[in-house]
């Protein structure tokens, strides 16, 4: 007879992160910042947490190393697919050690979720309308998914959405400015879908400088920078800051009149919006994707349909109560609230899995492979190491730069 597990007890949780950025990320990142928050808070709550990700991550938990150094920091560019496949293989090789695995590889590890011996949860961080993604969602309607907004999941009602969990960040220490600044802020990537051209057009039309803290890494980002941003810098409209560390980025946001998010695309969430609001700076956002779920029109910012409406928003944004903007953001998008919601999902999944013991291996049960000793199948390649140990050996893939 199977003994039910304590539904409120600590869990053995594996968190899978991609090879591009270490945890926590040193500069611009979205998904990896959420992974860092989950790792640290779940460990603080007493769960046995393991990160399956880059070996140069600095986390307070064990690591199954997937790559010796995160790709962006190693200088590697190009197709990361082989390194993502290594990540999935490492996760698969140690899956039996966990009660729940939480993948942050978007759709790339769907097959792993279907065939894993333990439950695998996916949080989908990206847009779901890209080529091939709808077909994947149609095929994998059985695997448990978390959406980061209601907007993100609305076209796939038949999939196994176990929750919608808005992101949360440790926003309490964000700098705060009660006085509205004299410039507009843009934080993110130099990408067309992020509304770079619209932000520059708005700044030009209202005669305000636009301070941009943005990543320019991929080739298409470099081309857009040369075609659109560089001329605006020469014109004196844009002050380009490059990628900023968290403290510097938050100071830039706190000093702005408003932060602009004018991309005409289905934004799955919008971390920049909550970070800006936490500093007291309202957001002027296009009414697209998840932003209507995040920005309270007339309270924490304004929702607009085009650049013309954004001009009206610039005129009215200084009248908003910046203390109320900050308080609303801290209440709605806290780490505690986000992790509470994920914890509830983990507990449900672990309880369901415990009813099917034949589909799972005990955490201490060795893998038996014909012709080889009865030991863990990949212990030599996917050893769990203590991230805090200086002497730990981290066997991992080294990227070619």
Protein model, in words:
The chain is of the alpha/beta class. It is built from 14 helices and 14 strands. It has helices spanning 31-44, 71-74, 81-93, 110-115, 133-139, 150-153, 196-206, 219-235, 246-254, 271-278, 291-294, 307-316, 322-332, 335-354; strands spanning 12-16, 48-53, 62-65, 100-103, 120-124, 145-147, 161-164, 184-189, 210-215, 238-240, 258-261, 283-286, 301-304, 385-386. The strands form 2 sheets. It has an 8-stranded mixed β-sheet, sandwiched between helices. The longest helix has 20 residues, at 335-354. The N and C termini lie far apart (54 Å).
Strand content: 5-15%
Low-confidence stretches: 354-381, 388-394
What pattern of helices and strands is seen along the backbone? EHEEHHEHEHEHEEHEHEHEHEHEHHHE
Biggest sheet strand line-up: 7-6-5-4-1-2-3-14
CATH top-level class of the largest domain: Alpha Beta
End-to-end CA span: 54 Å
The count of DSSP E runs of length 2 or more, i.e. the number of strands, is 14
Q: Assign a percent range to the helix content.
A: 25-40%
According to CATH, the homologous superfamily of the largest domain is Glycogen Phosphorylase B
Shape: globular
CATH architecture title of the largest domain: 3-Layer(aba) Sandwich
Supply the helix-strand structural class: alpha/beta
């Amino acid at each position: 007879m199977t003994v039910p597990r304590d539904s409120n007890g600590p869990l053995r949780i594996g968190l899978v992160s991609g090879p591009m950025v270490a945890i926590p990320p040193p500069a611009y990142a979205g998904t990896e910042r959420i992974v860092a928050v989950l790792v640290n808070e779940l460990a603080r709550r007493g769960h046995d947490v393991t990160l399956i990700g880059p070996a140069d991550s600095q986390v307070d938990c064990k690591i199954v190393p997937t790559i010796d150094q995160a790709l962006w920091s190693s200088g590697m560019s190009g197709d990361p697919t082989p390194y993502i496949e290594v990540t999935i293989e490492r996760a698969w090789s140690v899956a039996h050690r966990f009660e729940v695995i939480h993948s942050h590889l978007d759709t790339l590890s769907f097959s792993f979720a279907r065939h894993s011996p333990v439950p695998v949860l996916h949080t989908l961080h990206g847009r779901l309308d890209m080529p091939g993604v709808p077909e994947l969602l149609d095929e994998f309607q059985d695997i448990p998914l978390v959406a980061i907004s209601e907007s993100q999941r609305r076209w796939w009602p038949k999939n196994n959405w176990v929750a919608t969990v808005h992101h949360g960040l440790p926003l309490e220490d964000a700098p705060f400015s009660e006085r509205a600044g004299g410039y507009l802020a843009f934080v993110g990537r130099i990408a067309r879908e992020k509304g770079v051209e619209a932000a520059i057009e708005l700044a030009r039309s209202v005669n305000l400088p636009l301070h941009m803290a943005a990543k320019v890494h991929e080739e298409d980002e470099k081309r857009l920078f040369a075609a659109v941003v560089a001329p605006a810098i020469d014109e004196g409209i844009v002050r380009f800051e490059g990628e900023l560390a968290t403290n510097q980025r938050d100071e830039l946001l706190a000093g702005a009149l408003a932060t602009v998010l004018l991309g005409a695309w289905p934004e799955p969430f919008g971390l920049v919006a909550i970070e800006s609001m936490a500093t007291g700076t309202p957001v002027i956002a296009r009414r697209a994707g998840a932003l209507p779920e995040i920005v309270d029109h007339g309270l924490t910012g304004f929702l607009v349909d085009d650049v013309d409406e954004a001009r009206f928003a610039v005129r009215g944004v200084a009248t908003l109560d910046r203390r109320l903007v900050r308080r609303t953001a801290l209440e709605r998008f806290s780490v505690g609230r986000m992790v509470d919601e994920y914890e509830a999902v983990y507990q449900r999944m672990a309880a369901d899995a415990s009813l099917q013991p034949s589909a799972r291996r005990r955490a201490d049960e060795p893998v038996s492979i014909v012709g080889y000793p009865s030991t863990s199948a990949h212990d030599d390649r996917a050893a769990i190491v203590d991230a805090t140990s200086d002497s730990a050996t981290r066997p991992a893939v080294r990227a070619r730069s």
